[in-house]
Amino acid sequence: MKEQLMAVKETFVEEIKRADSSDKLEEIRVRVSGKKGALTLLLRDMGKLSKEERPAVGKLANEVREAIENTLADQKERIIEMEHERQFELEAIDITLPGKKPDIGSHHPLNIVIKDLSDIFIGLGFSVEEGPEIEWAEYNFDHLNIPKDHTSRDHQDTFYVDDDKVLRTQTSPIQIRTMMKSQTPPIRILAPGRVYRSDEIDATHSPVFHQAEGLVIDENITMSDLKGTLDLFAKEMFGSDTKTKFRPHQFYFTEPSAEMDVTCFICHGKGCRVCQNTGWIEILGCGMVHPNVLEVCGIDSAKYSGFAFGMGLDRIAMIKYGISDLRLMFENDIRFLKQFR
Ligand code: DAH
């Protein structure tokens, strides 16, 4: 019995010390001191010993049990520590690795132009308005004093939805909507938006493009208000050294009408490829709102007057950012868009 006890102690103490996981240790514990464990079985046989043998063997048995329990406890502690360390190693973060940069989006050049434009006119007390892209032909043409037989009404130039609805060809019908809604001036609005014309696509034409419309109506509004406002806008938009020039023009909805040129903001008036060596760039159409337009919207043209203007936003973005092909604006190529960060 003594030899058996010593043998159990030797084999199991050794085995316990070699255990390298909690599972393995538990498996050994069951084999030595579980219900049918080697030591448990030996201790159960103690009853069969003679009276004389019992004290000495009993003492040894206790020592063996203690030795095994202590070794188990020590090893358990060691394993827990080892397993923690292994876990730490597994979860370790290498802070010296280069990080992954998330791709940051950018504003579309057209939206940058619309934002800049809006900021300038909001600063002048204008509000920003919108109108529908499917518009009454009446608002797009008739109410703007455009003659019944004008070529722009032709199906070759205008997309008709049906006999009396069109895809608006200009943002000018937003003038009509605004005046009809609020017949009590003062009115000061800027209305940017998408417009449509039945054009072939090339580097400078697209069947969908963008305009912004402006309208001011109040008592005693004169051509000098128009010039002052648009000159200030040009300086804010293209640089404080920008000069403006107004050339007579003809629009049906304004009288008198003009086109406004600004000094080329690429060469500052010296002459370059962008301004075709003239030093000037044409930016917008404008004029004093025609009395017929005021009256059709229910505004008394004897009491009120006003001015309006309209500009092509794609062209402004192209010149401002040196974009050589209008199609780039609509292709959503990330390599193009990324440049406007
Ligand atoms: N709607 C005109 C166009 O598409 C631009 C324009 C010119 C708008 C003069 C105006 C204006 O409001 O007064 O060519």
UniProtKB/TrEMBL annotation:
Subcellular location, principal: cytoplasm
GO process terms (BP): phenylalanyl-tRNA aminoacylation
Obligatory cofactor(s): Mg(2+)
Magnesium in keyword set: yes
UniProt keyword Isomerase present: no
Keywords: Aminoacyl-tRNA synthetase, ATP-binding, Cytoplasm, Ligase, Magnesium, Metal-binding, Nucleotide-binding, Protein biosynthesis
Family annotation (InterPro entries): aa-tRNA-synth_II (IPR006195), aa-tRNA-synth_II/BPL/LPL (IPR045864), Phe-tRNA-synth_IIc_asu (IPR004529), Phe-tRNA_ligase_II_N (IPR004188), Phe_tRNA_ligase_alpha1_bac (IPR022911), Phenylalanyl-tRNA_Synthase (IPR002319), tRNA-bd_arm (IPR010978)
Family: Belongs to the class-II aminoacyl-tRNA synthetase family. Phe-tRNA synthetase alpha subunit type 1 subfamily.
Protein name listed in UniProt: Phenylalanine--tRNA ligase alpha subunit
Organism: Alkalibacter saccharofermentans DSM 14828
